[in-house]
Amino acid sequence: ITGDTVELRATDEISFIQPNSIYGLNKYEQEKSVEITCSAIEIPYVALRYQNVYGVGQSLSNPYTGILAVFSNRIRANQSILIFEDGKESRDFVYIDDVVQATVLSIENENANNKSINVGTGKATSVIEVAKELIKNYGIEVPLEITHKYRKGDIRHNFADISLLKTTLNFEPKISFSEGI
Question: Is the pLDDT of residue 81 over 70?
Answer without folding.
Answer: yes
